[in-house]
Amino acid sequence: GEDVEQSLFLSVREGDSSVINCTYTDSSSTYLYWYKQEPGAGLQLLTYIFSNMDMKQDQRLTVLLNKKDKHLSLRIADTQTGDSAIYFCAESRDTGRRALTFGSGTRLQVQP
Amino acid sequence: ETGVTQTPRHLVMGMTNKKSLKCEQHLGHNAMYWYKQSAKKPLELMFVYNFKEQTENNSVPSRFSPECPNSSHLFLHLHTLQPEDSALYLCASSQESQGNEKLFFGSGTQLSVL
Prior knowledge:
Chain A is mostly beta strands. In chain A, 0% of the residues lie in helices and 58% in strands. Chain A has strands spanning 4-6, 9-13, 18-24, 29-37, 43-50, 55-58, 61-66, 71-76, 85-93, 101-102, 106-111. In chain A, the strands form 2 sheets. In chain A, strands 2, 4, 5, 9, 10 and 11 form a 6-stranded mixed β-sheet that branches. The radius of gyration of chain A is 14 Å and the shape is globular. Chain B is an all-beta fold and 114 residues long. Helix content of chain B is 0%, strand content 56%.
């Protein structure tokens, strides 16, 4: 399977919470990231978490990390139509290699 | 604005053409990257440059030729491409800090090969 896996699509209603999930395979991951891509644009860094943390909160965004299960999630509170985009999970590894490994992305559709 | 600028935004080329993609970063970073984004596939890392030196070539066909004249500029030279090379090509830069490699991306070049 892929190194970083995500479900392809999520639909929520405006005002609800969205939870986007990601699983990864490499236990040497040091940092994990969430990126957002809007139509016609590149990837924008939303937030990241160090691998020895369980949770990180940043305004409407909450990142949860279960290192034992190699599971990462991004919760968006009070989802707005402007949150409609593709969300990518990515990891960096403690190998000296300078690059991130990305998942396929989850398309979030917010219904008004 | 992310501080990473890519040109052109769109490019249509025939299989016999030669073209180049350009990327410039204004962030003072020391690493630059080319990624390929195809529909419903993970981002594919193509090349990594660390302090102008190529440190990774991810089994990319030789019809893609990168060039990094300095830490702020990165090019991708294209020749005799195939229709399956049509994709969004993304440039990124980063400055590693204590193992944290935050990549900043440009808006990409949408390439169509006819």
